[in-house]
Amino acid sequence: MEKSVLLDTDMKVAVDTYLSSLTTNPQRVHNLNDLIAFTKSCSGENYPLRNVEGFQRAAATSPLDETYLRLSARDEYFATDGGIEGALGRHRCNVLLVPTLCVTLQTFAAKAGSPVMSVPMGSYPPGTIVERGEHNDLVNVAPGIPYVIKKL
Q1: Is the pLDDT of residue 152 over 90?
Q2: DSSP code per residue over 36-64
Q3: What residue spans define the domains of the chain?
Q4: Interior CA angle at 114 toward 21 and 75, to 5°?
Q5: N or C: which end of the chain has fewer CB within 10 A?
Q6: ω into residue 125 within 30 of 0, thus cis?
Q7: What's the mean pLDDT in 110-129?
Q8: Where are the beta strands (DSSP E) in 9-147?
Q9: 12 closest CA partner among 66, 56, 77, 69
Q10: Residue range 141-152: average pLDDT?
Q11: Does the pLDDT of residue 89 top 80, yes or no?
């Protein structure tokens, strides 16, 4: 999947940059491949219970790969002129309000360094049957709480 190429390569670059900048590094972990090897060899890391598949996927990428370069350019466009920053500038606005908080908006905002604000479009009426989350038992639906737009 192309999206994972961008995320995995960004992770590899960030981890390699961070690890190579350490002034004290007693385990001699200087890049992502070193981190993978350390995780596999150090009993305290609980490998293979805590696997390194994501690290290995990222280690196999290259910031010089054509797909990564193309996706990075597209990402840059949507973080500036083609995204929130561009929309605010073109319409001379200070804030972008949306009727619900969605992952897509969060992603665009994060990449642009923009804050995010969602505005509820209404709330559930009195008499609404309370619905709780399947995994966390938190209230998802109840009288008086804002609507949540669910993906279909």
Answers
A1: no
A2: HHHHHH-GGGTTTTS--HHHHHHHT--TT
A3: 2-67, 80-118
A4: 70
A5: C
A6: no
A7: 82
A8: 97-98, 117-118, 131-132, 139-141
A9: 56
A10: 73
A11: yes
